[in-house]
Amino acid sequence: MTDTNHPAQPTSSSRSAAEVSVGLRAQMPICQRFAYFDHAAVAPLPAASAAAIKNYATEASELGDTPWMDWSRRVELLRGEFAQLVGAGSDEIALIPNTSTGIGLVAEGWRWKPGDSMVVPANEFPSNLAPWRQLRRRGVDVREVPVPIGNDGLASLQLDMILKAMDSTTRMVAVSWVGFVSGWRINVAQFCEAVHRRGALLFLDAIQGLGAFPLDVRGTGVDFCAADGHKWMLGPEGAGMLYVRGEHIERLDPLMIGWHSLDERAAFDPANTNLKHTAARFEGGSANMAGLLGLERSVRLLLDHGAHLPGSGFAEAILRNVDELQTGLKQIGCQGHVSQAHEHRSGIMTITWPDDATTARDPLAARKFCLSQGIVTSVRGGRLRVSTHAYNNSDDIERFIAALDGFLRR
Q1: Which of 93, 110, 149, 152 minimizes the C-alpha distance to 299?
Q2: pTM of this structure
Q3: Could you tell me if 157 and 184 are in contact, meaning their C-beta atoms sit under 8 angstroms apart?
Q4: Residues 262-273 pLDDT 10s
Q5: Out of 87-91, 350-354, 373-377, least confident range
Q6: CA-based diameter of the chain, in Å?
Q7: Dihedral of the CA atoms 163, 165, 166, 168 (nearest 10)?
Q8: Which of 10, 74, 152, 348 maximizes the CB count within 10 A of its CB?
Q9: Which residues is 376 bridged to in the sheet?
């Protein structure tokens, strides 16, 4: 596997946090109606992404498949844009329906032997637990590592928790870049280095970080990585990416082989049995063309605003919002649970408040009240969860703080 498609990595962002916030906000119609803090669930679409999907639907309705070559060309642009976003080669990127598909392709495609073990935190999102648990039927020792909630109210995954569960039989470790409840962001390079030193590979579930924070899979040593586009990448549901480090492509058995898995020089030849030598071999059959075309515009928007760059103003805009949220919550007697160390923070924050009022204060009621005020949040882990993106601003935050204060004072 060559490096011919490996993009050069700039050393700094060309846009400040303020410029990113203003520029991205101008592309988000959601801001006209809502203060949207639910990107860790399903994000709203940028105007350009919605337009791409509408344009596909119009063309498919009026022109049939005659624009297919143009659609395919634009989808291939997405492959290259994903490569730029994560610091990979385009031949290491597969375009897939969702994170679960990516995890399943690696979990079931790896050539496990009875007695092998793998390690995964016990508090992962179900998509990063269920596929690994299934391996027990193949004789794999799946070790689920407890991640207790600390004094700061966070379930903070520490590297030593993983290392203690590993031994000479461990072939792979699967972890999330960012915890979907805690918002805890791991040091990817540190995890990869330690796992590799013990002879295992690392799978990264990147769905809660990719699009918000820079990731260099080559530089950090990630072996496999998957993410759907419908959260921080601001894309539609049902379209995402799988990264397979080049040296592992031939070591991973493809599942659900289809025409798109085969050497495209004889794509429609019934006698063709030659698999592609790139990660595209894992894509199987026909793609979600509408979703991928919409996602292409979303990823391009992220790249245009420097989301992939070290020292990203994009990431800084998100973390500034987290700081502002935490300050505002303190002023109304609430606690926003985030790491004290900024390097472990993400755009996700859970919130608690004193349980000393006669009015109902459960998180679901708070979410419902906030929605009535035009503020979108979620409930996860028994807490109200907010997840702020780079385009959110002080006006959005003030609206949310005022609404939550109003709810708690009822």
Answers
A1: 93
A2: 0.93
A3: yes
A4: 887 666 778 777
A5: 350-354
A6: 73
A7: 140
A8: 348
A9: 36
d(Cα 99, Cα 240) in Å, to the nearest integer?
7
Same domain as 243, residue 148: yes
Structural domains counted in the chain? 2
Tokens of 98: 């969702």
Sign of CA dihedral 327, 179, 97, 299: positive
In DSSP notation, 8-40 reads: P--SS-SS-HHHHHHHHHTT-GGGGT-EE-BTT
User: Checking DSSP bridges between strand 348-352 and strand 375-376, what pairing results, if any?
Assistant: unpaired
In order of 170, 265, 283, 363, 397, the CA distances from 275 in angstroms are 29, 11, 11, 50, 51
Number of H helices, E strands in the chain: 12, 13
pLDDT band at 9 (very low <50, low <70, confident <90, very high): very low
Domain coverage including residue 230? 53-304
Residue 230 domain-assigned? yes
Q: Count of CB atoms within 10 A of residue 63's CB?
A: 10
